Amino acid sequence: MTNAPALASQSDARLDWPSLFATRSTRMKASEIRELLKLLDKPEVISFAGGIPDPALFPTEAFREGLNQALTGPAAGQALQYSVSEGYLPLREWLVERMKSLGVPCGVDNIIVTSGSQQALDYLGKLFLSPSDTALVTWPSYMGALSAFNAYEPEYDRLAPFSNREPGDYAKMAAEKGGVVKFAYMSADFANPSGETLSQAARERVLDLAEELDIAVIEDAAYQSLRYDGEEVATLLSLDIARCGSIEAARTIYCGSFSKTLAPGLRVGWVCASSKVISKLVLMKQASDLHSATLNQISINHVARSVFDVQIEKIVSVYRSRRDRMLQALEAHMPEGVTWTRPDGGMFVWVTLPEGMDGAELLAASLKHENVAFVPGKAFFADCSGANTLRLSFSCANESQIDEGVGRLGRAVRLVQGH
Ligand code: PMP
User: Which atom of ligand 1 is nearest to the CA of 192?
Assistant: First the structure.
């Protein structure tokens, strides 16, 4: 016998929850990637869907050492205790040196540690966007950024550095939508999802536009360390500082992450920007989660200081081979009319299908008939265009899976084309 109440069914709900939710909640939708990832447990599926690091490449031994050290002796008290919202000071000091090596002279007051760069995107949306303000974003853009910003009920306009739109056109369109332009958001290196890297000239154009509109620039640098070919292009923040003289005068806000280099599970990222922006973010962090997990920050600090460069070398060499293999396989297996990007780094190849074909329809067919998964491109477009695009990630499949999976995808394309 038990006194526990019977499990309620959905029809027992007394409250009309949606009528109580704030209007901003209507813009919060399940991410297509997350929903999809739930379907990928079947061992026969070859997945090019998740943009996640290969767990076999995590620096596990260095983390074990870091955690041991953090939990040994008097340091344990600190590792398990509440901490400051700005972040663990030795880690911020390491980040200052890292940012200097990227051409960004700065101090610890220019750095806040966040719980992944995703939290930084949420905070920046919260800090800048009043409902109906406009965010300039690329078409396509990282869908997690769009989800983070959506909660603040913005409008979007297309950021295209080489379009011939005048700055005044952006301002006029934003005013028509009931707000003003607040920032331009972009991933300048090996973007998620396009894989593309902006040339220095394009970065200068973005900064010109931002100056003319007098808005902030959010530089999402999640993949920046993963370069496989070619010369590094200066960060937007360093180009901005070269124009204005110091980080305190810069309009660019740089969002970094350890997720793609060391490990995403610890949720450690950072923002580097003018101290005026950082001090606001510190207040937001106090109000939202007080600080990022101290133990995680201490262990990331240990691992970054002991193996960062070696780790980058290791993952770059593995991911470079996988990228090469994916490009070769696409060449071998894709029917005519399908095109794709050739990324210099990162984790993604962006595929464009012939006009009229639909990425979501292709996904359904390739899961059903070929057991291969990817992400249809539409969700990455703020205007819901891009139906004939898709994102392939090469980070988590080994080379024979890449050959096999792209072969199957080619068959699925032909199958859908044949209909
Ligand atoms: N920006 C981009 C472009 C990403 O692809 C991701 C993760 N997929 C993030 C930010 C967020 O990463 P994290 O919160 O793990 O740092």
Answer: 3
Q: How far is the CA of 327 from the centre of ligand 1 (A)?
A: 24
Mutation test of ligand 1: which of 141, 186, 192, 219 has the most ligand atoms closer than 8 Å to its C-beta? Answer: 192
Separation between Cα atoms, residue 37 and residue 51, nearest integer Å: 11
**What tens digit of pLDDT does each residue of 157-176 get?**
999 988 888 999 999 999 99
What is the number of alpha carbons within 13 Å of residue 183 lying toward its C-beta?
22
Q: How confident is the model at residue 29, as a pLDDT?
A: 74
| 118 CB near ligand 1 (under 6 Å) | yes
The segments of the chain whose pLDDT lies below 50 read 1-2
Q: How far apart are CA 214 and CA 251, in angstroms?
A: 9
Q: Write out pLDDT tens, residues 242-291.
A: 999 999 999 999 999 999 999 999 999 999 999 999 999 999 999 999 99
| Cβ-based neighbours of 130, under 8 Å, separated by 6 or more | 152, 179
* DSSP per-residue codes, 259-290: TTTT-GGG--EEEE--HHHHHHHHHHHHHHTS
Pocket test for ligand 1, best of 33, 58, 117, 380 (most atoms within 8 A of CB): 117
Position 3 scores a pLDDT of 56
Q: What is the pLDDT of residues 7-33, one digit of tens each?
A: 656 566 788 998 999 988 888 877 655
Output the 3-class SS for 131-152: CCCEEEECCCCCHHHHHHHHCC
Q: Residue 168 C-alpha to ligand 1 middle, in angstroms?
A: 32
Closest residue by Cα to residue 183 from 254, 105, 248? 254
**Residue 210: both structure tokens together:** 């931002």
- Name the pTM for this structure: 0.95
Q: For residue 358, report the phi and psi dihedrals to the nearest 5 degrees.
A: -120, 125
> How far is Cα 115 from Cα 95, in angstroms, rounded to an integer?
15
Question: How far apart are the C-alpha atoms of 278 and 319, rounded to whole Å?
Answer: 33
